[in-house]
Amino acid sequence: MLVYLLCCQIPLYGIIKSDEADPFYWMRAILASNRGTLMELGISPIVTASMIMQLLTGAKLIKVDQSNKEEKALYEGAQKLAGLLIAFGQAFAYTWSGMYGDISDVGAGNAILIVLQLTFASLVTILLDDMLGKGYGIGNSATSIFIAINMAETIIWNCFSPLSFKTKSGTTDIEQYEGAFVELVYGVLFRDNKLGAINDAVFRDSLPNISNVLGTAFVFLIVIYFQGFKITLKLANNKTTSDASYPIRLFYTSNMPIILMSALVSNVYFFSQMLYRNFKGSFITSIFGSWQ
After folding, report:
1. Among 92, 103, 141, 182, which one is least packed by beta carbons within 10 Å?
2. Can you tell me the distance from the alpha carbon of 100 to that of 14, in angstroms, rounded to the nearest whole number?
3. How remote is the C-alpha of 175 from its chain's centroid?
């Protein structure tokens, strides 16, 4: 967890900071990625490689006997290699498409370094996933743990961040703290207009606010409540009688459908953006969408 959190905070060397809107903003929580850091790609290469290997297996293009240790090890090795190649391809596409600045401004040397940094960070993620899958850690699903770590870090930072920013309040600029609770406490203790300070901390739209935190806590509790819903089926056959049962949970598929959808959409997004930046105006590019 510490290694992953560090990678989420270490910025990429050689990039040019941009004020452009993040096209993957709404998917970063699911993909456990942070913009402009070593974890830019998040779990996308792992999930994409898993989808490809499962599709190949389901289509009978490759045959794997999971009961055979050698075949299982070969399958897992191929999936890791596919994940590494996908990470390299995504890193190259991100850099070439100009997500970190135009290649002419970034420079060829820095562009190569950016690709290598993202690829190496994805290799670390793949190895961490392998360790967790073999039982070295909490649980056996690295994707869920990485998402949980990323979300926990985001929530805590939005609640208690000590950084301050200038925001608009009517026609005047005021300095506010990014952390919702920090701004609330500071406003109550030190600002002249106590009610206005409380209202800003609860409802402001330019920075995290208390209503966002309460909404997150509410959804969290609702999910925990529904997580306990299950139907227990009794197992029986014609030859023997048994009291064995099998529980089926309401959230049986957990978060995997959302993760798979987000990984697929993110791949379409970056491919579309790459085409639009380099081949704007062509018919094929317009099929995948246009960007502002």
Report:
1. 103
2. 8
3. 30
Identity at 270, one-letter amino acid code: F
Pairing of strands 245-249, 172-177: unpaired
Q: Which residues contact 26 (CB under 8 A, 6 or more apart)?
A: none
Task: Check if the beta carbon of residue 227 is closer than 8 Å to that of residue 251.
Answer: yes
- Give 106-110's long-range contacts (Cβ < 8 A, gap of 24+): 106/14, 106/15, 106/16, 107/14, 109/14, 110/13, 110/14, 110/15
β partners of residue 164: 177
Tell me how far apart the alpha carbons of residues 49 and 288 are, in angstroms, rounded to a whole number: 22
Maximum distance among all Cα pairs of the chain, rounded to whole angstroms: 81
What sign does the dihedral 147-204-185-172 (CA atoms) show? positive
Separation of alpha carbons 237 and 81, rounded Å: 44
The two tokens of residue 104 are 């002419």
Cβ-based neighbour number of residue 59 at 10 Å: 8
Contact of 13 with 100, CB cutoff 8 Å: no
Residues in a beta bridge with 166: 175
With beta carbons less than 8 A apart as the criterion, state whether 259 and 44 touch. Answer: no
d(CA 233, CA 53): 32
Give the total residue count for the chain.
292
Between CA 35 and CA 75, with CA 119 as vertex, the angle to 5 degrees is 120
Name the pLDDT band for 139 (thresholds 50, 70, 90). Answer: low
Q: How confident is the model at residue 133 (pLDDT cuts 50, 70, 90)?
A: confident
Q: pTM score, two decimals?
A: 0.77
Helix then strand then coil, % of the chain, to nearest 5: 60, 10, 30
pLDDT in tens, 24-59: 777 888 888 888 899 999 888 998 998 899 888 888
Least confident residue range of 72-76, 164-168, 205-209: 164-168
